[in-house]
Amino acid sequence: MFALVDCNNFYVSCERAFQPRLEGKPVVVLSNNDGCIVSRSAEAKALGIRMGTPYFQARPVLDQHQGYAFSSNYALYGDMSRRVMGYLAEVAPEVEVYSVDEAFLNLTGMEQWQGDLEAYGRRIQAGIRQYVHLPTCVGIASTKTLAKLANHVVKKSTAHHGVLCLDSPEQCRWALEQVAAADVWGIGRQQAARLQAHGITTAAELAEVSEAWARRHLGGVVGARLVRELQGQACLELTPSDDALPQRHSIAHTRSFGTPLTAYQPLLGAVAAFATRAAEKLRRQNSAVNILTVFLSKNRHGSAPAPHTTSATLNLPAATSDTAELIRYARTALKRIWQPGSAYKKAGVVFAGLETAGAQQLNLFEASGQTAQRVRLMAELDRLNAHYGAGTVGFATALPGKGENWSGKKDLRTPAYTTCFKELWCIHMDGGFL
DNA sequence: TCTGGGGTCCTAGGACCC
DNA sequence: TCTGGGGTCCTAGGACCC
Fold first, then answer.
1. Highest mean pLDDT range out of A113-122, A167-176, A304-313, A330-339?
2. Looking at the keywords, is DNA damage present (predicted)?
3. How far is the CA of A305 from the C1' of C8 (A)?
4. Percent of chain A with pLDDT over 90
5. How far is the CA of A250 from the C1' of B6 (A)?
6. Residue range A282-306: average pLDDT?
């Protein structure tokens, strides 16, 4: 049996954990650059505010109902997530951290709870509520896809108080009937439309199609697997997340600008800064990169015709994780695509073709590859920035020039209560200060 | 005025090989 | 008039996820 533990309205709930006055109020959290709405409280959802809505569009209705909006505070959400996952690791035999706010648990062999896994789910829910102060829902079933589905059912209903265990065929059948095919894990917009065209609208109907049909109409093996999972036959294994950070196969840092950039120099600064951030992520997972892409995007929503994005990809002569080297390559790529007079709204640096650092295939014709000295320099850079704060030491190219500002808006950010000494949670009592 | 960011997996089709 | 039959590898792009 698998469980899916999912924090409700995660970003909003993190903000509420430190600001109880937000309980019962419409609350939203915004994406980078205060652009879109990416998390909504139940009250905000009830106002008809949809996921991904531009903030400026939702703002009137939010203001009208005395709602609150916050810039995203990733330091806070990341730390709250670590606390949740830490708790789960203590109470479950195997945990797969699936995203910042959800995790799969493998419940195989939990004899002491057999017959009452729902009680186990409730214990987890209460534990997270007590220790991390976050609301969760727990879905339990024989496959990951059904656990997801159970979780979806409890999120929508008040009857189950956030925990549902599908431990009989009747329970499964009932749950499948509650869920639209479009809401099944792995069914996106395209597939949902295709299903609809074939008269399949509920998860129960989807669970009844033949394997051949699924292969043909739902994207080959993925579709066949999905249907089997709905039928209760586990095809997806749990991949336990150990203490090590997950190994990414690609690493990117991309951002929209507060105001569009046209001139080369500030764009170079931004791209260098993005390459710096991506290189830090790269070294954190002990990888080196072979393929580097830089892209620039113009305003997607303006009148200009597509394409809005141009990119350049370089195959590096040897894998590296050296920030200085990567900034040089990023500059080369940028020069290829930058066009004078264009106003760019967004840029990004993407690393692909990752391999373990130190195991690089050396280039036969060039004496390249990182020297031990450069590796030590990068390690020291990371150490200083970890100890004294991000951006303490860096490369001049990656600094904004005089009067330049490429960072996005973040006007409504709350303090990093749990990860920054300067922003620690303060409690005021009787006008005094604790 | 204002519209996010970072991933994964799979498939189709082209290039190339014998 | 007519134009083989398998393979492998790589890449671009689609679809999906949170």
1. A167-176
2. yes
3. 39
4. 71
5. 9
6. 85
User: CA of A397 and C1' of B5: distance in angstroms?
Assistant: 24
What residues approach strand B to within 7 A at the CB?
A 31-33, 35-36, 38, 52, 54, 56, 219-222, 248-256, 281, 299-301, 345-346, 348, 408
Q: Which nucleotide is nearest to A352 (CA to C1')?
A: B7
**A186, closest nucleotide (Cα–C1'):** C16
Residues A384 and A256 both lie in one domain? yes
C-alpha distances (whole Å) from A225 to each of A89, A139, A220, A309 are 28, 20, 9, 35
Residue A177 in tokens: 């009937």
A241: confidence class by pLDDT, cuts 50, 70, 90: confident
The CATH number assigned to the domain holding A151 equals 3.30.70.270
Residues A225 and A81 in one domain: yes
Nucleotides of chain C touched by protein CB (<7 A) = 12, 14-18
Average pLDDT of the segment spanning A79-84: 96
Q: How far apart are CA A234 and CA A224, in angstroms?
A: 12
Distance, CA of A212 to C1' of C3, in Å: 36
Q: Which residues span the domain enclosing A380?
A: 251-398
Distance A357 CA to B18 C1' (A): 37
Examine the pLDDT at A432 and tell me if it is beyond 60: no
Residue A360 has pLDDT above 60, yes or no: no
Q: Do A89 and A63 lie in a common domain?
A: no
CA dist A184 and A218 (Å) reads: 13
Q: Supply A272's token pair.
A: 């260098």
pTM, 2 dp: 0.91
Beta strands A2-7 and A37-40, pairing class: unpaired
Secondary structure (DSSP) of A168-179:
SHHHHHHHHHHS
